[in-house]
Amino acid sequence: MLKIVRKAATTAKKLHVQNRWLSFTASSACGIRGPCIIEKRGIDIIHDPWFNKDTAFPPTERDRLGLRGLLPPRILTFEQQYDRFMDAYRSLEKNTSNDSERVVSLAKWRMLNRLHDRNETLYYRVLIDNIKEFAPVIYTPTVGLVDMIVLTDGSRILGLGDLGVQGIAIPIGKLDMYVAAAGMNPQRILPVMLDVGTNNQVLLEDPLYLGLRQPRLEGEEYLSVVDEFMEAVHARWPKAIIQFEDFQMKWAFETLRRYRKKFCMFNDDIQGTAGVALAGLLGATRAQGRPVCDFAKQKIVIAGAGSAGIGVLNMAKQAFLRMVENCGMVDNNQFWLLDKDVWGLVTTDRKNIDPAAAPFARGHGQGEIEGLREGASLHEVVAKVNPHVLLGLSGVGGIFTEEVLKAMRKSDSSRPAIFAMSNPTIKAECTAANAFEYAGENTVFASGSPFENVNLGNGKVGHVNQANNMYLFPGIGLGALLSGARVITDGMLQAAAECLASYMTDEQVQSGMLYPSISSIRHITTEVGAAVLRAALAEELAQGHGDVGPKELMHMSKEDTVEYVASNMWFPGYSPLVQKKFF
Ligand SMILES: NC(=O)c1ccc[n+]([C@@H]2O[C@H](COP(=O)([O-])OP(=O)(O)OC[C@H]3O[C@@H](n4cnc5c(N)ncnc54)[C@H](O)[C@@H]3O)[C@@H](O)[C@H]2O)c1
Ligand SMILES: O=C(O)C[C@H](O)C(=O)O
Ligand SMILES: [Mg+2]
Fold this sequence. Notes:
Elements: H1 2-9, H2 11-24, H3 43-46, H4 59-64, H5 78-95, H6 101-118, H7 120-129, H8 131-138, E1 148-152, H9 169-182, E2 189-193, H10 201-204, H11 219-236, E3 241-244, H12 249-259, E4 265-267, H13 268-287, E5 300-303, H14 307-327, E6 335-339, E7 344-345, H15 364-370, H16 378-385, E8 389-392, H17 402-407, E9 417-420, H18 432-439, E10 444-447, E11 454-457, E12 460-462, E13 464-466, H19 473-483, H20 490-501, H21 506-510, H22 521-538, H23 550-554, H24 558-567
Parallel strand pairs: 1-2, 1-3, 3-4, 5-6, 5-8, 8-9, 9-10, 10-13
Antiparallel strand pairs: 6-7, 11-12
The site of nicotinamide-adenine-dinucleotide has 32 residues, from helix 13, helix 14 and strand 6.
């Protein structure tokens, strides 16, 4: 993929070079006056766009290069090929004259790109001779027609660790969700895998591994590749939204810090997850029949100080502070964070504490009062704190053991909440059945990967919520795209989380349902997208999208915005097919 983007970024350079040699010799695909010595033969030459001449290979080259039988026997001149292409291009224009401008532009862009992929010499000739007409097709605005890019470097795929290039399945899956939930047009999405090596020893030793068998790039070398990618992709598709996905923690935070004010990007694991978790935590407060402001009194234990865990803590802390201010609550440190480096409770006594985790370390005084020391075990912490919420984003299956879950029975909450958010299923901190069995039937349960509802007997059902960032990222991407904002702000993300949090009725929440059914995800995404768009407008960041400018967006009511978002969502269906007429 990086190759494709680099190709785009170097197009200008190539054009310059081609221009030069065209003035020397218009017929050589190699560029420098004399003959071009090539090692390839036969089909390999035809498959190389730089050398391919299609039907223009002269008889001598056909004989010498083993091309006979691979091409139609009729030989065309460069000019004849040129005319044939332009004829085909004009008939495309004619056949699509009733279609929308976007459809026509994309069809033209594809036609030119197919030629680019097949025969670069003819492509650039056509381009140079018709630059005024083709520039809008191959450059802005048509090249702006990639809407959504999901990017990974494969370094932390779900809770499975470093999977190298095999991590590409994640961007593809996320983009499937963009199509299904956000109605992104599947022709306008791009999954990207940045292959910077792998530190997975099994892959490094596997001769069948498809990626680079070298240790991951580190430090400045790594950042310079990501910088180059971001610049190139922005030059090529300036309006596309870029979602960073499944990067290991150090790069997840560093890239977010580095790019969020410069590009329209967000990190799904840090920011998408945080919003979904916050919506669930607010729901868990309401499930106890308490007002949302009481969220600031909830005691929350989190296992896993990684990108997702810290992201959740940061967003929850912001919400706490808002409630402290708006509802006149007291600002206590309501978080207990556990991690594995020295496994257990993170306190200010911890050596080499990660700067991102430092604000959430329990202070000396606090630890003493609670009788909890640095590195206290999860069971110890739960037993002493009696938290309202136990949340796992550790990537380690089963750490909410029977003992830990039983300790949750003494929770200060009438509806203790257990969020086992790690993925995939085997990495969930506990199963749904174990949560209800050991922590009790009043438990409110959510997991990152789906579990079946649990039959509690006597006609009662333990409801399983799926606390997964899929409830938010499609709406964040769609709302950001339609707003035309250049960046994605905390305000836009907060609007997304609040929209999801208020989606459920009190009745639903009190029956243990914190999130809506996945089957209504398209509706939720419409609402979230509209909320993100409105937040961008409120912050005066919206520049509009397509024909709809910021002024029109400003004049839309809340309902209009939702309708506008819905009307921009693609929905699959066959189009009538008409046989092409040949003249
Ligand atoms: N449900 C969702 O929407 C969602 C979203 C993002 C991430 N996740 C999941 O969360 C998990 C973590 O993701 P991440 O991006 O934060 O990864 P990460 O690697 O950045 O963080 C994992 C953290 O857990 C810590 N850890 C390891 N073993 C532990 C243990 N026994 N107890 C406590 N902490 C331990 C690690 O030291 C690390 O700090 C993954 O399984 C991922 O799939 C779920
Ligand atoms: O991919 C998911 O299902 C959620 C999340 O982004 C994760 O990394 O686990
Ligand atoms: Mg992820």
